[in-house]
Amino acid sequence: MIKKILLVVLVCSISSLCYAGNIELGSKTDLKDSVAVYSTAYYDDSLLSDFLYPSSDHSWVSESGFYKDYLIAWEGEMIESPWPENVKLTIYKLNDGQKAEKIYESSDYGEPDYMSVYGDYLFLLYNYSPFNMRIFNLSSLPALTEINSWDSSLIKVTDDYNDIHATSAIGGKYFYKSDGEKINVYDISDPAEPVEVASKTVDDAMASITVFRLIGDRMYVLWVKKVENYPYVLSVFKINNGTHINFLGEYDFDDSLYLVDLQIKNGYAYLAGTKNIHSPVLVALDVSDPSKIKKINEFTDFPDNTNGYSNSIDFLSDNVALMVQSNEYFSTGYYTSNATMLYFLDISSTADIKVLGVSWGSPRITNIYKDYILNTGLHVECYGSPFQAYCTVESLSGLSKVNLDLGEPAQVELLGFKTSANKKSVKIKWDTLREDKVTNFLVVKKSFKTNGSSTNKNQSSTGKTLLSKKIKPAGSITHGSTYEFTDKKVKKNNHYQYELYYVDENNQQHILRTTEVKTGK
Q1: First-residue to last-residue Cα distance in the chain
Q2: Which residue in 137, 315, 415, 453 is a FRET match for 206, CA 20 to 30 A apart?
């Protein structure tokens, strides 16, 4: 069981075997290094029945975290408004991959804006509340014991809005906050007695802080200036032994950008947000030298973008990023995030970011939870439906453990698709295709991908199109529809990619699904 919450959307731990139905792929050890599942806050008993309790289509989860063999979550319902109702703190006992047992439920804790688990303690942080932080001891679950609350005398900030951010970095014992003029650091080794250990005055008054990120001894702070048009700033600080904060440099963004998330990878800062109100944007900065931060890319070329904004980014690997985009007015008419796309981005060249694939759905995704760091050789499979949008991401090398690339046929089923492969044929079943404005026809395209060996005699054929076949008529795509495809013209020990896409009235291609398969030896 992976016990650490990285971001804030409820998701399934692969070591707990979270997928639909009775699927036999090998032991938990086989799966742990080969598959990662991404899920939104919406789920029902047909999709996550092996992990969570049966739920309605209206289920909503905002914050979640793991403590030992327990899952702690804030749950509610999305019924008649864009805001959650009946919000409760719930705790589940995880029973080694079996259906989770709810052991605690209460609506007595309001609606916190942030939840963090550190050691044996649960921290609930509030932006609007008589108490700004409440701390609970988890060591005696199912009993939940409150040990302390911090009132506004400790963490009250500008305009009565707390902009609270906590982190477990640097030994896991520091809490960060800002009052609009300073960044303060508290040692919370003893949660009952927090001690301020450092502070740093900022040059311009902060209207708000959007994100804190700590990477090693560097603290990255994305914040908003309290000046006209409220432009964003990324400031970089060095923290020495948790007690001294030194300013290293900053970058000022133009006021056309509204930025909401920040991640750091390999010397680059990636910031997700919106440009000119309704266009999603991913900004990439070179922060290897904080005194000379440079903008490398401002990527806006997202397909199927309609009045959208991005609100989260995370990484699958050094070269693949995930970004969430939400569309306004998609299905309910509310000014909210009821339609969502999950973009898979190639960031191997920061200056030349490309969209690898898109998962469509219509849930509310607020952030991405990453359950496992993947190996190389990624395979991405996504699908969406009215209340679910899920993706599976597999390491092709890891899948050899479940016989996908052996000589005898193997069957794999992971949240909505099936693939069988042997040395003579490949069969793919694409499930739960999304309804779309398909006005022309569907196409299956097959291309060759090498196995990565520099001695492969077919290396020069990488990306070569081997098949392009028109299939079902345009009107056949609806929510939940299925398409099966069998390819008998394959060679053993090869690696193929299959794309299912439609062509619109303007002859533009729109990819619906992408699947990679390795044939048997």
Answers
A1: 34
A2: 315
DSSP code at position 475: G
Closest by CA to 399, choosing from 427, 428, 429, 419, is: 419
pTM over 0.90: no
The 10s digit of each residue's pLDDT in 182-206 is: 777 778 777 777 788 888 777 667 7
Backbone torsions φ then ψ of 27, nearest 5 degrees: -75, 170
**9: three-class secondary structure by DSSP:** coil
Within 8 A by CB and 6+ apart from 140, the residues are: none
What are the distances in angstroms from CA 53 to CA 108, 350, 363, 414, 520? 22, 41, 19, 20, 38
Residue 236 · residue 259 · CB < 8 Å? no
418-518 CATH choice from 3.40.50.300, 2.60.40.4070, 1.10.10.60, 3.30.420.10:
2.60.40.4070
Distance, in Å, from the CA atom of 330 to the CA atom of 389, rounded to the nearest integer, reads: 15
pLDDT at 302: 79
Q: For the residues of 121-133, what is the DSSP string, one character each?
A: EEEEE-SSSSEEE
Side-by-side strand order, sheet with 417-421: 410-413, 417-421, 426-433, 481-487
Q: What is the DSSP letter of 107?
A: S
Q: What does the pLDDT look like over 206-241, one tens digit per residue?
A: 777 777 787 878 888 888 888 888 899 999 988 877
* Residue 371 pLDDT: 29
Rounded mean pLDDT for each run of 10 residues along the chain, 521 residues in total:
24 23 23 26 25 37 67 67 70 62 82 74 70 80 80 46 43 64 76 78 71 82 84 88 82 90 91 82 95 95 64 71 60 38 79 74 35 29 32 30 22 37 68 47 69 39 64 51 73 76 70 68 67
**47/120 Cα distance (integer angstroms):** 31
Neighbours of 87 (CB within 10 A): 18
- For position 311, what pLDDT does the model report? 63
Q: Which residues pair with 46 in a beta bridge?
A: none
Burial environment of residue 438 by CB neighbours within 10 A (0 to 12, 13 to 18, 19 or more): buried
How would you classify the pairing of strands 114-118 and 182-187? unpaired
Distance CA 208, CA 222 (A): 9
Token pair for 464:
């070569």
Neighbouring residues of 474: CB distance < 8 A, sequence distance ≥ 6: 438, 439, 440, 441, 442, 502
CB within 8 Å of 483: residues ≥ 6 apart? 429, 430, 433, 442, 471, 472, 500
Q: Where are the beta strands (DSSP E) in 216-305?
A: 218-225, 232-240, 244-252, 257-265, 268-275, 279-286, 294-299
Per-residue pLDDT at 294: 97
> Which residue's entry shows tokens 């799966």?
31
Query: Buried b / exposed e across 175-214, counting CB within 10 Å, b at 16+?
Result: bbbbebbebbbbbbeebeebeebbebebebebbbbbbbbb
